[in-house]
Design brief:
This protein is an alpha+beta fold and 105 residues long. Helices cover 17% and strands 30% of the residues. Strand 1 and strand 2 (25-33) form a beta hairpin.
């Protein structure tokens, strides 16, 4: 998520990482300034190989796997990853994780 914030955020923009605890859930936000994700792409951004209309900065082209892999990993920890509507010109991805998860094998 941080790498995406760097590569897709505004040139010389800001990146913030914040967290808070609410009950037995921890929330971690990764926020960057820049062009918001278009409404039409929001339902697809977590799909494998989807590359949105915004161009990645730098010499290396992305594969469209980053958000999909991040979401799968977080879900394996009984959490969730989603896009949050933030202020104009900011993109915010939120990780929601339980403080402890029991695994029944």
């Amino acid at each position: 998520l941080y790498s995406n914030a760097v590569h897709y955020g505004a040139e010389s923009g800001n990146i913030r990482i914040r967290s808070h605890l609410q009950g037995s859930t921890v929330y971690i936000d990764v926020i960057n300034t820049g062009t918001p994700i278009p409404e039409a792409e929001r339902t697809m951004i977590f799909e494998p190989f989807f590359q949105g209309s915004h161009q990645r900065k730098g010499a290396v082209k992305g594969s469209g796997l980053g958000l999909s892999i991040a979401r799968d990993c977080i879900r394996r920890m009984q959490g969730e990853l989603y896009l949050v509507d933030e202020q104009a010109q900011e993109v915010c991805f939120r990780i929601e994780l339980p403080l402890s998860a029991t695994k029944n094998d």
